[in-house]
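[SOLVED] Predicted holo structure with flavin-adenine dinucleotide

Edit: marking solved, answer below. Original request kept for reference. I posted the sequence and ligand SMILES and asked for the 3D complex as structure tokens.
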Amino acid sequence: MLESLRLLQPTTVPEASAALDELGESAKIYAGGAELLLLMRHGLLRTEFLIDVKKIARLHNLAWDGEALRIGSCVTHRTLETAPIILEHAPTFAYAESQVANVRVRNQGTLGGNLCFNDPHSDPATVLLVHNASVRIGSQTGERQLSLEDFFLDMYATALETNELLVEVQIPPLPAGMKSAYLRLHRFQRPTLGVAVAVKMDKEIIEETRIAIGCVGPRAQRLREIEAKIRGATLGDAEKIVAEQKNYFRELLRPVDDLLGSSEYKLYMTCVLLARALESAIQGSGNGAR
Ligand SMILES: Cc1cc2nc3c(=O)[nH]c(=O)nc-3n(C[C@H](O)[C@H](O)[C@H](O)COP(=O)(O)OP(=O)(O)OC[C@H]3O[C@@H](n4cnc5c(N)ncnc54)[C@H](O)[C@@H]3O)c2cc1C
């Protein structure tokens, strides 16, 4: 059972940040509550105050500004899975959102909550990295912008300071001619492995590519070294290169054994799924095909 709590409902970002400053460790930001309430029910987290940020109108924004999608941190997974502007400008991201848990969690959980909690088993995080997404962070003293890659520090750790909130996620579309795919492997609801790929071909040759892997290690990551290695290769050569990269994956991704699979299994499946995702994106049969 949950202990009694005080609920604060600020209507602006500076107000929420001021509450964080004032209450310190005794307060937690509360968005959908999908993670927070679960932890509290299991006695893994105690807090006296919940700062419900859902009354802050701008955190519900969902817009295309001509250059990027701008998504307020309180927009739910379900909205992102179905919103026409997401399907138009970032279809693979919409697909990844549709894979989150089940419709109950997708209706409750927000994109901001997912990214701020930074559970390694996140679907949206992996796809957002191939979009070069960035985040807008706010406090009572101002706002700052950070690439999503720099936002993720480690398992359950982000670059947010104690008085800061995630305000908005900005998602540029993929460059013209790039096709994408997201593949995931799951044993339970949360993914064991997520692979996001975007590829631009020049006839049979990979001209440009972006690759991100999630869930294997403590945080989702771009694989820039592999991206450079397969640039200029055919699909067949790229698949061979990927198959030889187990040691690189081990060092970069720092796979962990957990209930979702052993680290060896995750490394093996990373190579398999990455080759499949490349093929799927190149053939235009991926979930980013339009
Ligand atoms: C059963 C289950 C299955 C799941 N399966 C998947 C899955 O398959 N794929 C996947 O990607 N995810 C999965 N999840 C995770 C789910 O996506 C997240 O639980 C959800 O998105 C969290 O959002 P929330 O709004 O409920 O966050 P909350 O629980 O409200 O908050 C989570 C954390 O983020 C902080 N926070 C929230 N918003 C902000 C903000 N704006 N600024 C600063 N800090 C903030 C909170 O203080 C808290 O620490 C699953 C969760 C559950 C419970």
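OP edit: The pocket of flavin-adenine dinucleotide is lined by residues 28-36, 38, 53, 73, 100-101, 105, 108-110, 112-114, 116-117, 122-124, 160, 165-166, 189-191 (CB under 6 Å). Thanks to everyone who chimed in.
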